[in-house]
Specification:
2 domains; Ribosomal Protein S4 Delta 41, Chain A, domain 1; single chain; Structural Genomics Hypothetical 15.5 Kd Protein In mrcA-pckA Intergenic Region, Chain A; 8% strand; alpha+beta
């Protein structure tokens, strides 16, 4: 089951911005101010030594939270990645980054991955001109993502996201107005900077 509890609690536990809040909003600013304080009544004083298994668990939880997945979903992605040729960690990230909801978010068409998931589920998104309502839909190089209708881009939160000047596109994506395209398979460098993928693979390999 996907986590639906307090988002700030998860963010503070992982000590990093997981993309739950809209950048520039008051809630995002409030979250960032308390980012380094662990959740709970005694959060500021709780700094216990973490075992190797604990470190693996934390990295796995970070990855799961970033993409908004359930435990079963992430486990299935790992199994699929391990069956593919090449580096399992890189295969896993490519599978996750290729999800439609993630691509919509990465293109700057939604302020958060949760908002992107809702856009897809409510049939606001087209892939190669055809409506797709499955957030986990796997995209391939040269696939084109766009809004189903002009009014979809006029939703206040989406319009604000599209107007943000600080969007940095990954090298494997390009956008023109309210349409975007995958240039190549997703790169893994951005995710490798955010967490230790080796620990995630070790967690599932035991």
């Amino acid at each position: 089951m996907r986590y639906i509890g307090p988002k700030n609690r998860v963010t503070r536990r992982e000590n990093m911005d997981l993309g739950f809040k809209t950048p520039g909003s008051n809630s995002h600013a409030s979250m960032m101010r308390r980012l380094n304080i662990l959740p709970g009544q005694h959060g500021a004083a709780r700094r216990r030594k973490v075992s190797e298994r604990g470190r693996q668990l934390r990295e796995k939880q970070k990855l799961k939270s970033i993409f908004g997945l359930s435990e079963r979903q992430l486990s299935n992605y790992f199994k699929k990645a391990s069956r593919q040729k090449g580096n399992t960690a890189q295969n896993l990230v490519r599978l996750l980054e290729s999800r439609l909801d993630n691509v919509v978010f990465r293109m700057g068409f939604a302020p958060t991955r949760a908002a992107a998931r809702q856009l897809v589920s409510h049939k606001h998104i087209l892939v190669n001109g055809k409506p797709v309502s499955i957030p986990s839909y796997h995209l391939h190089a040269a696939d084109v993502v766009s809004f189903a209708r002009e009014s979809s881009a006029k939703i206040p939160a989406i319009e604000a996201a599209l107007a943000r000047p600080d969007i940095i596109l990954p090298v494997w994506l390009e956008t023109k107005g309210t349409q975007g395209r995958l240039l190549t398979e997703p790169a893994t460098e951005d995710m490798e900077k955010q967490l230790n993928l080796r620990l995630v693979i070790e967690y599932y390999s035991k």
